[in-house]
Design a protein that fits this description.
The protein is mainly α. 55% of the residues lie in helices and 11% in strands. The chain contains 8 helices and 5 strands. It has helices spanning 12-22, 39-45, 60-67, 78-83, 98-110, 112-129, 132-150, 156-171; strands at residues 3-6, 28-32, 49-51, 72-75, 91-93. Strands 3-4-5 form a 3-stranded parallel beta sheet, sandwiched between helices. The chain has a two-stranded parallel sheet with strand order 1-2. Helix 1 (12-22) links the parallel strand 1 and strand 2.
């Protein structure tokens, strides 16, 4: 069993020391940051994509993993809730819940049929909800929700900034329907 840790972060040295102390260092490879062209090779080589971030916006690696046909386990970051439907397209775990992470990884490795069902549903979920057209269709709801939330709080200065932002988005071709 080989565990690849891809990416950089402030915990690298602590993880390195922990792996040595636990006697599992020989089963871990610290890959570091990747060139974007290398990412598909790593997805092709892995059995499971586990993302253990403490915070993320829209986590592109989750979208890429799903499209690449990999079962996903992720911490419950804001972006993970959009990309992973817990128990349906992958698994969401609490932050720093190492025992649960290990349990989920072992469970998926022992149950390849379940892993494939998660992959199939995950891929469909991403294709159905994260295409350019679907994202652009969601903009009106987002803008309306923002407008309603700010309606009573909008000062003259904020209103002018909002109008300038709307004009910029229209010029960029992102927004074509503002009132």
């Amino acid at each position: 069993c080989l565990f690849l840790i891809v990416g950089e972060g402030p915990e690298r040295n602590a993880i390195h020391k922990l792996a040595l102390r636990l006697g599992v260092f020989q089963n871990i490879r610290f890959i570091g940051g990747l060139n974007y062209r290398e990412i598909p090779d790593y997805f092709a080589a892995c059995d499971i994509a586990a993302v253990t971030s403490l915070y993320e916006g829209t986590c592109l690696v989750l979208l890429e993993a799903a499209i690449s046909g990999k079962p996903i386990i992720s911490t419950k970051t804001a972006g993970a809730y959009d990309a992973v439907l817990d128990g349906q397209t992958g698994y969401l775990i609490d932050f720093k819940d190492s025992p649960r992470l290990a349990q989920r990884i072992a469970y998926l490795l022992k149950n390849p049929g379940l892993a494939m069902r998660l992959v199939e549903r995950g891929r469909k979920h991403i294709l159905d909800n994260f295409s350019k057209d679907e994202i652009l269709k969601s903009y009106p709801k987002m803008w309306e929700k923002t407008r309603l939330a700010c309606r009573d709080k909008t000062s003259g200065s904020l209103q002018r900034k909002k109008i300038r932002l709307t004009i910029l988005l229209k010029k960029a071709g992102i927004l074509t329907y503002a009132k």
